[in-house]
């Protein structure tokens, strides 16, 4: 399919919004929500993808696509696409004033050796991922406690309660503690879901804050990572990829979670960013029983290479970065309010700091 640069709607006082993304349906959702916003939908076979996985080859872009992107003043796209595009051609977005990310995380732009700061505003796709990621985390916790995978195996093998030692050994969630590393919108949504089942929630944060109120569902906040790890039956990382969080759990960082150090040998869940812990450190933590299992939706390298040792481990669950997908129907709610502010010179929400990386 050839790239095209025809506006789908027009408005005398509005700036055209260029949409270049692997996520289908965004243009239709925006057009239905506000037909007055002029859209330029750019499609090219060089960009494909699914879920949290993007496949982009900027060298194969058609000339018409390159021209459309060079004209773009407002762009909706994936951070990885923007990063690869600018790395290949620093002038590829020479007219850009504002980029709306389709993801909450924008780390590909900061990890691509681009010269920062870039001369345009970048906004995160925020405020939508909390509920679906919370659903995924609670489903995984329940599935792990109730050994649903073992029951599935029993059904395939036609064995009634063949895995009874597993399926009968579950704990009530109300007896468990969930430590959440990263207490932004997503972390608080996970805490809300956990509290619905009576779990105790501990929130790990970088800077001290006042005691939590009843609205954020965090029972205890701590700036002490060891405390967060030692008190947990489950640890879920929702941390973004920044200079402060990259490698935070590498080496012996998970040792305090082990029973020998006063911990509970918790299950580790990662729905934040894969670079919070490298593969070797995670394997070491599993081999030494610092953590009892790992449920992973994000990885250092994505897609996870076939040679990774994580694939073959019974104490690891591999999920292909799908815990919280961008839904096209969510885009108008996030984008349109900022679009109006941009046109009128107002202060937009979810603007990324080029200094902080988030």
Give a count of the beta strands, DSSP E runs of length 2 or more. 14
Helix content: 25-40%
Radius of gyration: 22 Å
Alpha-beta classification:
alpha/beta
Strand content: 5-15%
Main sheet: which strands, in order across?
10-9-8-11-12-13-14
User: Helices and strands, in N-to-C order?
Assistant: EHEEEHEHEHEHHHEHEEHEEHEEH
Provide mean pLDDT, rounded. 94
Point out poorly predicted stretches.
1-11
- The general outline is globular
Biggest pleated-sheet summary:
7 strands, parallel
**Count of discrete alpha- or pi-helical segments spanning 4 or more residues:** 11
How far the N terminus sits from the C terminus, by CA atoms, comes to: 34 Å
Would you give an account of this structure?
There is one protein chain. This protein has 358 residues and is an alpha/beta fold. It has helices at 26-33, 63-71, 79-88, 107-110, 130-145, 148-156, 164-167, 185-196, 225-230, 279-287, 331-344, and strands spanning 17-19, 39-41, 47-50, 53-56, 74-77, 98-101, 121-123, 177-181, 200-204, 220-222, 234-237, 267-270, 293-296, 316-318. The strands form three sheets. A seven-stranded parallel beta sheet has the order 10-9-8-11-12-13-14. α4 links the parallel β6 and β7 (121-123).
Q: Topology of this protein?
A:
Layout: E1 17-19, H1 26-33, E2 39-41, E3 47-50, E4 53-56, H2 63-71, E5 74-77, H3 79-88, E6 98-101, H4 107-110, E7 121-123, H5 130-145, H6 148-156, H7 164-167, E8 177-181, H8 185-196, E9 200-204, E10 220-222, H9 225-230, E11 234-237, E12 267-270, H10 279-287, E13 293-296, E14 316-318, H11 331-344
Parallel strand pairs: 1-2, 1-5, 5-6, 6-7, 8-9, 8-11, 9-10, 11-12, 12-13, 13-14
Antiparallel strand pairs: 3-4
Helix pairs in contact: 5-8
